[in-house]
Amino acid sequence: MAAKPKPLILIVEDDKDLASLISEQLEMAGMVTQVYHRASNVLRFLSNNFANLLLLDINLPDQSGFALLEDLKKQNLQVPVIFLTGDHSEVYKVKGLEMGGDDYITKPFSFPELIARIRAVLRRAETAYDYHITKNAALSQETFDFCGATVNPIRLEIEFPNGNQTKIGRKELGILTYLTSNSGTVLTRRSLIHAVWGIHADVRSRSLDQYIVKIRNCFTKNNCTLDAFRTIHGVGYIYDPSELN
């Protein structure tokens, strides 16, 4: 039985020394960490990658932690958040929790307590989110075949017949999952957007098409044909591997 993957914790903290110390302690506790000092870099990462938890300072150089959480919500990027801040204001604490923060820890703090709280949120999140990285795709699902390549949701990776392994983003995974789950059916662009981004997401067809281009380029680069995946002009797409039989 494969070992459970270590949780990825994003540490968003403008104090570089403190961020480094937190990272060291969390990795000693069996977690994987990435440190960011600016909110914009976090948003860019989460737009294409999965993280188990966000350890978020409120006061950042480019925008507040509250504003970052709002931006994540607007893009329908769901990730558990623990606010970590030196501000002891009850007003801020209430605001953070009402915005959807899973916990609120004030500095100074002890590392055993921080680790215990992170683990508590991760336990709750495992049930609540079920490791979903888009509306329709989860890290817990089994590998599946798409046009002769093997898609591995847990690793966010595609393995091609030539042996190459290529990382993919969460949206590409969501698209491949939806196409495979509805093989043989013509899918409109709108249905794909609703499946991957959510029914209330403000995403245009052009954005979807750009992700499709990424998928096509990835397969072409690895000499893998996409004969079973076709564009239905003016409508959307169809994935039908039975046409090749």
CATH topology call of the largest domain: Rossmann fold
SSE topology string: EHEHEHEHEHEEEEHEHHEE
CATH class of the largest domain: Alpha Beta
Structural class computed from helices and strand pairing:
alpha/beta
The main β sheet shows up as: 5 strands, parallel
Q: What is the count of DSSP helices, taking H or I runs of 4+ residues?
A: 8
Q: Give the count of structural domains.
A: 2
Low-confidence stretches: none
CATH homologous superfamily caption of the largest domain: Response regulator
Give Rg in angstroms: 20 Å
- Give the name of the CATH architecture of the largest domain: 3-Layer(aba) Sandwich
Round the mean pLDDT to the nearest integer and report it: 86
| Overall form | elongated
Number of strands: 12
Strand content: 15-25%
**Helical content, roughly?**
25-40%
- The end-to-end span amounts to 35 Å
Task: Kindly report the spatial arrangement of strands forming the biggest sheet.
Answer: 2-1-3-4-5
Description:
- With 245 residues, this protein is α/β, with parallel strands linked by helices.
- The protein folds into 2 domains: 8-129, 3-Layer(aba) Sandwich (Rossmann fold), CATH 3.40.50.2300; 144-244, Arc Repressor Mutant, subunit A (Orthogonal Bundle), CATH 1.10.10.
- Helices cover 40% and strands 19% of the residues.
- The strands form 3 sheets. A 5-stranded parallel beta sheet has the order 2-1-3-4-5, with helices on both faces.
- Strand 3, helix 3 (65-74) and strand 4 form a beta-alpha-beta unit.
- Helix 2 (39-46) packs parallel to helix 3 (65-74) and helix 6 crosses helix 7 (189-197).
- It is elongated.
- The two termini are 35 Å apart.
- The mean pLDDT is 86.
